[in-house]
Design a protein that fits this description.
The chain has 313 residues and is of the alpha+beta class. The chain is 30% helix and 23% strand. Strand 2, helix 3 and strand 3 form a beta-alpha-beta unit. The longest helix has 18 residues.
Length: 313
C-alpha cells in the first residue's frame, strides 16, 4: 500500500471505525462478540456498470452498498452490528468522490447503528468495485431460513414492489419519473431491519433478484410450490400512475430489497402489528401440490415471463 492509500484511509475511513478496528493501523480488528448471541455474516459487492451507474451520486453508492447487506440480515431476522469494507478504485478517482462516498457511509452508520471494523483498499484499471461484509446477531437457533416454508403458509411482502427496476428504466429514458420516486428507490432501498415479528415467520428471503425468482429460491429450499396473485402485489402511487404495461418488469426486475415472508394465515394481524409503519401485504400462498412458482393474473390465468429475474451469469 502506498502513502496515498494510507492517507486516504486515515482521512476518509478511520473516522468511521470502531475501537475494535484499532484505528485501522493494524492487520485486523480484535472484537469480542456479544455474549450468548449467534453471529450472522453476509457479503455483497457492487460493480460500476453492473450494480450502479457511473454518474450515480457516490454517497448513494455507499449507502446502497450497506443497505443491500442490511437487507440480507433483515431476511434472517438479525440485528446489524458492523461491517468490513473493500474498495477497488481507479487512480484517477477524484478526492470529492471519496469524500462523498465516506459521507454516505457515515450517514447510514448513524441511521442503522452500525460501525466500521476494517477492510482493504486497492486500485483498478477497470470499473470501480466496492464490497461490504456485514456482521449481525440473533438469538441462537432463531435465524429465519429459506427452508422453513410450509404448505398452507400465506405469502407476504413488505413495502411495495417494482419501483427500483422502474428507476433503472427511468435512468435509461424509457419511463417518466416526475416525482423521482423511481430514482429514489433505485438509489436508496429501505432494508427492513428491526421488525418485531420473531416467532411468527416460518421462512423469509429478501427481494434482490426479482419477486418471482426469489420466491422460487425460497420454494426450492423449502420443497414447496407457490402461487402469487399478481393483482395483489403492492405498488406505489408512482407505479400505479405508470400503468399496467410494467407489471412483468415489476415482478421480475429485482433490486427492491423488500422481504418475502412465509407465515401462517392466522399470523397476519400479529405480523401487521409487528411491522409497525412498514406495510405488509398478503400476495399468495405456498402449496405442497407442486413445486413451481405460478403467477396468476387478474383473470386467474397463469402468466409467463421471458426470465423470472436477474441472472448473475
Amino acid at each position: 500500500m502506498n502513502n496515498g492509500e494510507f492517507e486516504r484511509i486515515a482521512r476518509y475511513f478511520a473516522p468511521l471505525a470502531n475501537e475494535a478496528a484499532l484505528g485501522l493501523t493494524d492487520d485486523a480488528a480484535v472484537w469480542l462478540p456479544p455474549t450468548g448471541r449467534a453471529l450472522v455474516l453476509t457479503l455483497d459487492q457492487m460493480i460500476e456498470g453492473v450494480h450502479f451507474l457511473a454518474d450515480d451520486p457516490p454517497d448513494c453508492v455507499a449507502r446502497k452498498l450497506l443497505r443491500r447487506n442490511l437487507s440480507d440480515l433483515a431476511a434472517m431476522g438479525a440485528a446489524p452490528i458492523g461491517y468490513l469494507l473493500t474498495t477497488a478504485l481507479r487512480a484517477t478517482t477524484p478526492e470529492p468522490w471519496l469524500a462523498m462516498f465516506a459521507e454516505g457511509l457515515r450517514v447510514d452508520q448513524e441511521r442503522y447503528g452500525i460501525t466500521l471494523f476494517g477492510g482493504d483498499s486497492t486500485s483498478t484499471a477497470g470499473p470501480l468495485m466496492v464490497s461490504a461484509t456485514m456482521i449481525g446477531q440473533v438469538a441462537p437457533g432463531a435465524a429465519w431460513r429459506r427452508s422453513g416454508a410450509r404448505a398452507g403458509d400465506a405469502m407476504f411482502v413488505t413495502g411495495t414492489i417494482g419501483d427500483a427496476v422502474l428507476g433503472l428504466e427511468a435512468a435509461r429514458g424509457n419511463i417518466d419519473d416526475p416525482t423521482l420516486r423511481f430514482r429514489e428507490r433505485r438509489l436508496l432501498p429501505e432494508p427492513r431491519v428491526g421488525l418485531a415479528i420473531a416467532g411468527l415467520v416460518h421462512a423469509a428471503i429478501d427481494i434482490s433478484d426479482g419477486l418471482v425468482q426469489d420466491v422460487g429460491h425460497l420454494c426450492a429450499a423449502s420443497g414447496v410450490g407457490a402461487v402469487i396473485e399478481a393483482g395483489l402485489v403492492p405498488r406505489s402511487a408512482a407505479a400505479r400512475a405508470a400503468g399496467d404495461d410494467w407489471l412483468a418488469a415489476r415482478l421480475t426486475g429485482g433490486d427492491d430489497y423488500e422481504l418475502v415472508i412465509a407465515a401462517p394465515v392466522e399470523a397476519e394481524p400479529a405480523l401487521r402489528a409487528g411491522c409497525g409503519d412498514v406495510a405488509i401485504t398478503r400476495i399468495g400462498f405456498f402449496t405442497g401440490s407442486h413445486q413451481d412458482v405460478i403467477v396468476r393474473d387478474a383473470a386467474g390465468a397463469a402468466m409467463s415471463f421471458a426470465r423470472p429475474g436477474w441472472r448473475h451469469f
